[in-house]
Amino acid sequence: MTKLVFWHGWGMSPDVWTDFMKDLCEVLSGDTVYEAMPLPGYAGTGLPDGDSLSSWVDALMEGMPEPIVLCGWSMGAVLALSAACRYPERIERLVLFGATPCFVERHGWQAGMSQESARHFRDGVRADPVATLRRFVALFNRQDKQARAIVRRLSGLDIPPSPVLDAGLDFLDRADFRSLVPHIRQKVLLVHGENDPLMPPDAALWLAENLPDATLEILPDVAHAPFLSDSRQCARFVGAFLGD
Known about the structure:
The chain is α/β, with parallel strands linked by helices. The chain has ten helices and six strands; from the N terminus they run E-H-E-H-E-H-E-H-H-H-H-E-H-E-H-H. It has one domain: Rossmann fold. InterPro entries: AB_hydrolase_1, AB_hydrolase_fold, AB_hydrolase_sf.
């Protein structure tokens, strides 16, 4: 039996995985188990105490002793990189959509959001989280072949409380897992959109070059949500990866 666990992105919901899991059922064996988890603070869960860089992963992995295939998107993918190092015995493989080891630009890292843009975005979330989140969804799907459908899909999700959004932005502002990446020994599948404006393809290329065992698939005409833009192709990628 294979268990796939899914971690969603900032401001989103476990429901983003629903259609993709249906397509995975078409390509994976019938004894595969699927679990879409809420990130800390989402879907009525609480924010854990302590440093978010470690406590969030610890909270997500609590009560999960059996080995899993961990699938993460965006912020969920960033968390998954940390989890692979903190819990190597519990994570068999990683499947990462729109991943980056470092969300914000800093010394030696230009494949991220500028510090100024990150500050403006946080100010917008604090002033009007609903409007800012809608603009955010439209922005990261702007150059996707399925942009309208994806925006409609994501705009209908429940929005978490403002303190949860703010805590997530704090996590993303501080997270820099580049030093961890060479120590991740699990096989990793990276799926990235060629037109991703949020996590540039250069971030995926860096991961592919620095992870010890990674496969990179870049989808043309796709932005930040590959598994929503081309769900069936992404399911085929995962099926081939797990069958390897």
